[in-house]
Amino acid sequence: MTEVIQYTIGMSNGFFIRSGETVIAVDSGGEMGDGPFLDVCRKHGIDPRSIALLVVTHGHVDHFVNMGAMKALTKAPLLCHKLAAPFLWEGLKPDVFGRNALGRAVMARQAIEGDPIPFVPKVEPDILFEGTYDLKPWGIDGKIIETPGHSKCSTAVILDSGQALVGDTIAQPPGASTVGLAFLSDTENSDAVLFDSVERILSAAHTVYSGHGGPFSRDEVMAALLEEKAQQSQTAGAAE
Ligand SMILES: [Zn+2]
Question: What separation in Å is there between the alpha carbon of 167 and the centre of ligand 1?
């Protein structure tokens, strides 16, 4: 049985995937420091040194801010997509903008309130991949796939058991009560690419674990996708 454990540190979620004796960690939560990570390990009976692999879903700081501490505590290698790597090793902040009305509202609020994580720490990834990455050699029945749309480097962990860990490709926007598709993007006109990524996730998963909020059911995410598609065709109709 493959178990997904979700925890929240600061503004974002981190995860453990446990299968028998094997544990891997996905994303880091949104704050730096040994303390919060050791607390969640203790709470779930996980010895940090037993964690075999660290995975970053995409190159945004609220998903890898604590990976430096996690590398030191676990001694595990850090894996990310080839396109995410420069953000990690150079401590870069991506240019993102609101993909939809909700996202534009979030960006406007952030312009007033300031960046929630203004500093991007550098961390060295050990394993880079592109295409599909098989997790079976690590003892986890699943794979990592490319899911661009929120960012060019976005990926999702898809477990054979039907659980998906999707980073920000699917997320609950701050202040919203329901799940939505990525409200920020690093690419103009990314809707079609994002919708395709979400459809591929839903074709493989019944439960969706997100960087923000959740977990969400397949039906909840499907409803959000259909609503976005309806809005898009309305906009297209109005423009004709
Ligand atoms: Zn992100």
Answer: 7
